[in-house]
Specification:
Elements lengths: L3 E4 L7 H14 L5 E4 L11 H18 L6 E3 L4 H12 L4 H5 L2 H7 L7 H16 L4 E4 L4 H18 L7 E4 L33 H9 L17 H14 L3 H7 L3 H27 L2 H29 L4
Bound molecules: adenosine-5'-tetraphosphate.
The site of adenosine-5'-tetraphosphate (AQP) has 19 residues, from strand 1 and helix 1.
Length: 321
Amino acid sequence: MIRLSAITPSGQVQLGNYLGAIRRWAAEGTAEDVYFISDLHAMTSAHNPARLRALTREQLAVLVAAGVAPESVCVQSDLVRELGALTWLLECTCSYGEAARMIQFKEKSEGRASVRLSLLTYPVLMSADILLQGTHEVPVGEDQLQHVELARVLARRFNGTYGEVFVVPRAVVAPTAARVRDLAEPSRKMAKSAPDAAGTVFLLDPPDLVRRKIMRAVTDDRGEVRYDPDGQPGVTNLLEILSACTGKEARELAGSLSDYASLKEATAEAVVAELKPVRERTLALLADPTELDRIRAAGAERARDRSTHRLESALRVSGLG
Ligand code: AQP
């Protein structure tokens, strides 16, 4: 069974990406799975080419350093020709209305004078990512369900019109792993592209910087360490992070910590300890470009081998070639 997950190089990998996704990919993923570094998706809004290339390499190094099976990791643009071709076939299978009704497109385009056409069409590219690999399951958060549904619709429509080529994928809503919130603004989730880095712990932040960011995390004036997501979002976020790093239950941890200073100190040390080996392995890989290139090329070759026949079938039954 093939499962496909992705991470977008829209910024440096942050603690939420790691605790909420990457760590699980390393623990539960199999060599059959596909982990895409979706650099093509990172181009749907203004981007800097050199930064995109550097972030893509960083993500590749982080995934491998975290223990994700190297043969299952693939940089999306290494298959840009295959994906470009399939995206075209799928755009010829998808209606404008279906793309325009995507909630993420509406949200991300709202109030902007100009948006890239790719912001509208990227769910079709995502369908191509999924269908090209013969994916059976796509583990997603609620916000991506609509996109996987589009991939299902397009697969069925294409198969029904031209002949059975694609596996119809299933969305699987992943059980709630850690949801990490911004340290400075706990009302929003921690994100790679947050406007202010003070509330974001990046995986490659040096330990002292990690400690400083956590010691400055926003709490409240109640002075009591309680697990209360609505009433004490900052404190609860720290408890959630501490829980994700120690494996202890957040409510139990709340009972064992008497003040905010000890909560922050415990959280800072737990995060530093959790990230240390991954950070060190990532830096070592980044310092070894030959090894990183080898891993990247092997991942691309594997993903390409798995998909070539499917693309050829899709082109043939469409009347091309
Ligand atoms: N704060 C978070 N807590 C838990 N999980 C998180 N993920 C992201 N942020 C958190 C999970 O990380 C995986 C890869 O994310 P993505 O690159 O596909 O997109 P994203 O969710 O939009 O990530 P960011 O960091 O928030 O990036 P930007 O700033 O570009 O929007 C996903 O499995 C995601 O759930």
